[in-house]
């Protein structure tokens, strides 16, 4: 899918709290603005996940003369999707040839490994096996191989059972696709490294800053006033929003259309008990169901030495719903009230019920991994972490799979100065440095930086 551009009309509102200013030496200093002149910046990036942090870093590296800030509503960076994921460095096999996902993933993988080596960030290029366990999956596996070749994924190889078992003795299946350059890393630590780079170049970082409103300032040089719920203000010439789970809320409050709507899906993982942590050295994935953007229950050795299995994919009852008990009735009503969600839920009701059952009954989740890993039982697992995926959805119930950006110069003093990153799905972390370059290119072109 190609880059999607939509018009932005002048905005009214957006969401946030009090904040901390993080100095380059990483000390958090609380600052009060109620009786001070607002801080003014050439660019303010809203959202301290991996895409926002990478973009702020790229912008200040290109334009060191500009005054740039990044604001984050939580008390640390990478609080949500960027810090709650499987940690896989994707190679670019799954994505439609010619799509932004494919292009940015392949480019991002190369940039990521270069960055990790330069910064001394621990990673493992442990590889990935995608395993077909049924005859019906073999044609889809061959299609994945063709996609990988067309996308320029390096050194991928089809394997028979003998070759598969030589690589991973505990793996079983009919045929597999081997990707040697797939790896693992702690993406939360990578995000914080991006922020450190940004601060060392003179950028300012604000935590605990939940934006409440945008308004036009009297200062023509810095016309965008970003106001927090406690009345603190920051002024900017230009704004980039990378708000992840809140991206549609932010966009709507700034005058953009509701679509693509963000529907939160919780992904729950299991841990293998430590005594079983050597059962596999590589990522082992099933052949995914092409109807969904989820890659299926997979086994991943983490950089901390633990092995996780998952995730499932179940509707979260709020945008930051990491547990069954996390419920926000206003957000849940908004999700259910969206016609696209209702159409999708009706169409795939059976799939949804199965995923919920696997969440509630661990043996059902374990059965998914037993399809391609032998000699493993429910006793070998314990409850693990969870993450929430921001799944963009259209009004017809279609799941939006590619990156989406909204911008349109000439829509008012505020609207013409903002670029929204509406959808940056997996492999957003792998692609983060490539996405940042694309965003910086776009901002340079549209805002004449």
Automatic annotation (TrEMBL):
The record ties this protein, via Pfam families, to: DAO
EC number of the protein:
1.1.99.2
Keyword Signal on entry: no
Question: Which cofactors?
Answer: FAD
Keyword terms: FAD, Flavoprotein, Oxidoreductase
According to the UniProt record, what class of enzyme is this? Answer: oxidoreductase
> Taking every annotated instance into account, which residue ranges of this chain make up the domain FAD dependent oxidoreductase?
42-441
Q: Which reaction does it catalyse?
A: (S)-2-hydroxyglutarate + A = 2-oxoglutarate + AH2
Spell out the NCBIfam families in the cross-references. Answer: PRK11728.1
InterPro entries, from UniProt?
Answer: FAD-dep_OxRdtase
Name the UniProt record assigns to this protein:
L-2-hydroxyglutarate dehydrogenase, mitochondrial
